[in-house]
Amino acid sequence: MNGILQDNKIRTAVLIIGIFIAFIVMVLSVVLGYTDTSLSMAIEAYTAFNGSNEHLIIQLSRVPRALVGMAVGISLGIAGVLMQALTRNPIASPDIFGVNAGAGFFIVFGVTFLGITSIQQFMWIGFLGAAVASGLAYALGSAGRGGLTPVKLTLAGAVMAALFASLTQGMLVTNEKALDEVLFWLAGSVEGRKLSMLAAVMPALLIAWTVSMLLSRQLNAFALGEDVAVSLGQKTVIFKFAAALMVVLLAGGSVAIAGPISFIGIVVPHFARYLVGSDHRWIVPFSALTGGIMLVLADIGARYIIMPEEAPVGVVTALLGTPFFIYIVRKGIFQR
What we know:
The protein has helices at 8-31, 39-47, 53-87, 99-114, 119-142, 150-173, 176-186, 195-223, 226-231, 236-258, 264-276, 280-302, 313-331. The protein is mostly helical. It has a single domain (8-335), classed as ABC transporter involved in vitamin B12 uptake, BtuC (Orthogonal Bundle), CATH 1.10.3470.10. The relative contact order is 0.17.
């Protein structure tokens, strides 16, 4: 598959332009919303802080929100690329395969029965839930005749997502306190997130981003088929374990801080392939950048849908991603 950007110099230029666009989008996230602010006011909030309501909102809400949205979008975009390459399934993503639902279930379980309240605890239990959900989906999709296939893995992931979502709802019904604490979070939101929360998960995300970039060359070989990858000298067992671990870090960290946000991991890898083709050395960075931009833009839109109240950003990403998901399924791509 050839993308519309076939020259590496052009790809590099577009990537640099994309970084600039990401910065502009984050600036818009800081200044746009129910409270009227401006770029000069945002700068003054850090250079001439006066304790005003606007300056406090910029420092304590808008800037952390923009940074969290960008970090989560980058993580979900990369996680989608890894999952689609590992499974050779174009609709693979943390939300479709139940990884987000598993992480969410474990976090709600921790809030309900273990009294967990800190983001550090959320992070570790989110990682555990993501790992358990991934393992169960992979095991279920590999069972039976024919071994692992894209269709079986998709169905197994859907089963895991439904199972963990049902268990989560069951716990919330019996615990109103937990319902109040996590209901908005479960819809996927970056509102009210603090820089300390981002700092708690950032080391894991940075490791996952870096390792995913290093794995991108091996993703090209693996995409040709596992037998071909082995013939080229790739240790596929180690490679698959490393890539799966990165998905757990990316999805678990994202869910811990922002809740289960859907469809970013499905949409952005396809957009990246449209731009740069099948070379994962370019797909990974383009997906990361596109995911961050898309999530921050969705968060800006979420502020205006039911103003003066705000909709969870997960609702907006679902509205944007559902038509694209239907398009993929109608074309029958996942059956290839």
